[in-house]
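Narrative progress, year one. The postdoctoral researcher (J.K.) led the effort to move from monomer predictions toward full complexes, under supervision of the PI. The following entry was the first complex the group processed end to end, covering 715 residues in total.
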Amino acid sequence: MTSGARTLILIVIIAGPAAAQQRPCDPPMPLGPSHDLYCIELVPAPGITGVSGRVELAQPPGPFTVAVTPEGRSRYIPIVSLHGLPPPSSLAKSARAAYVAWAASPLMDPVIELGEVRNGTTALRAVDLDKFIVLITAEGDRRAREPGGRVVLRGQSPSTRLFPPDLLEFSIGAIGQSPGAGRHEHANSAAAPDSLRWPMVPMPRGLTMLPAEMALRPHVTPYLPGGTAPAARPRELMRLADGDTLRLEAGLVRRSLNGGGRSYTMYGFNGQYPGPLIEVARGSGVVVAFTNRLPESTTVHWHGIRLDNRFDGVSDLTQRAVAPGGAFTYRVRFPDAGIYWYHPHVREDVQQELGLYGNILVRSPDGAIYGPANGEEVLMLDDLLVGESGPIPLGQESPTHALMGRFGNLFLVNGEPDYRLAVRRGEVIRFFLTNASSTRTMNVSFPGARMKVVAADAGPFEREMWVESVPIAPAERYVVHVRFDRPGRVALVNRVQGLDHLFGRFFPEVDTLGTVEVARERVGDDLAVSFAALRRNTATTRELEPYRRFLHRPPDKSLILTLETRGLPPVTQRLMQLDSIYFAPVEWSGTMPMMNWASTGREVRWLLRDPATDRENMDIAWRFHRGEPVKVRLVNERLSFHGMQHPIHLHGQRFLVLAVNGVPNDALAWKDTVLVPAGSVVDIVLDPSNPGRWMLHCHIAEHLSAGMMMTFTVE
Ligand SMILES: [Cu+2]
């Protein structure tokens, strides 16, 4: 980005309609963004009086609702507001004196110059340190490269509140529920079949668990499908023409996951993993003759498709669930080009986890909604939780992992742990990415290869953007173009910062999802020139024009995202209280595996609450009129027992993300799922175009199964 463009964007951030939405440093309001997670109060240094200041940690411009480095560190634009500063020459005896803002790690290495500041509001350059302090100094020269002048104000990032807690307190906590007592209380109940007991869940390397934590077990019956099944096959491409019929069958399959000759009974569509890749033309419609050969009831939901309500596949809302041996005929029409997916809408925490998902690629007739590429890859990303003897069982009556969701430890691309792609040097590949995992938001990249993002869930961006990584939440999709211009091996990785809650530290995690082998031989049709340019999509810009004015309007509806708990073990409650001192915008990995595993839908109820009526979850019934856009404010409650991100999905419609924590979004594209970071407020404008009674829910499978859903009707 040129410095001119950056300045312009920063001006837009500051001059944005602050009146339309609370900013983190505004006086705290119940439906505003978290003050303590996204605002730093500056404290005057000794001897400094009459000076005050704050630093808003603002969302940087970009295509995602969470900004991170390729390594997964949070990235913010610090916006400094200062009052009462005397002329700088009174504190630094120089004609060229100035106030300068700095960010530094707690150990003052590195120290980053953020820019000159003065009374009033100044947006500075982005900060991406895990923990940092902010200093305002009076420097003799505004071009100072390191802080040498008098410190005027200082503050600490919210993440510095993490600290190693007093170990004595923990040992008392552990004695409060000794391992023996815990095991006795939470061991497999008599209800568990002899054949299946809870095995130990895998532990992330390098993390310490308390004895009382290690004793925790989920209080539900372990479930895994049994019996014999045919070996699963890789997915097949099904090109369907208008009016074609697809026979789709959900049934048991045998999967071998990590080599070693062992195989496990799981679920699959048509005996494949993932399910068949359905390719259709925009505007076409197909018939899906579905049969359920599972041992439990199911449905098929067509995620993101604006289809007829009665075929949306939501049990007890649009249809009765299809019983084992039963059938249902879906008629699915595809009004929008893009990448979509299908999965059951019954106990996603079980059925999706066991392998029931597939992609739908809807082609546009002109074929030009994306720029040119040499090849295409449709990738479904997933993480499966496996122990020494196969998948960790699921909760039969209620989901396990109800607090943070089921983080897996085996990464799968299209159902395989070792995705490989061979390309020629210079090739541009269009990747259609879908996150099919239960809870994990990934931060994917191809280190060493240039990448641009061209489209989101349900349509292209107004303009393409260079990105270093793609943060992608469960159920989200992104279309990216990647050029491989150096021979050798390029990895597809998920890089994040884990949070060690016991020791209050961030630590890097790298998961390799696959590898791209780049040959020395050059691609025949070199797209270097078209790839180097960022396309603007004027048709999209025109189409989105009528929705822009909603940025400046108050919301029509608000929704609070929170949870309530009952009967959680004492050690879990104590740890969660400590954990609530700070929540990262995104919980990228499962660093509290035992207490998370042992929390079920019986102890944890995730909530959508309408503050206008105080109704919750399925008691909420919003009504909208077709063709009348609705602005909805999603408020991720800071003060909840456990704050984390929620990918919120609306069925049968599409929406635009207008703002995050009051910062207007300058990268619009139609979406059907939006990631709402912890303690954040996300404004969307919904295009209620499709009549019927529809679901709105969190797409973390365990949160959905623990109640986090509601309905709305488009009339
Ligand atoms: Cu959720």
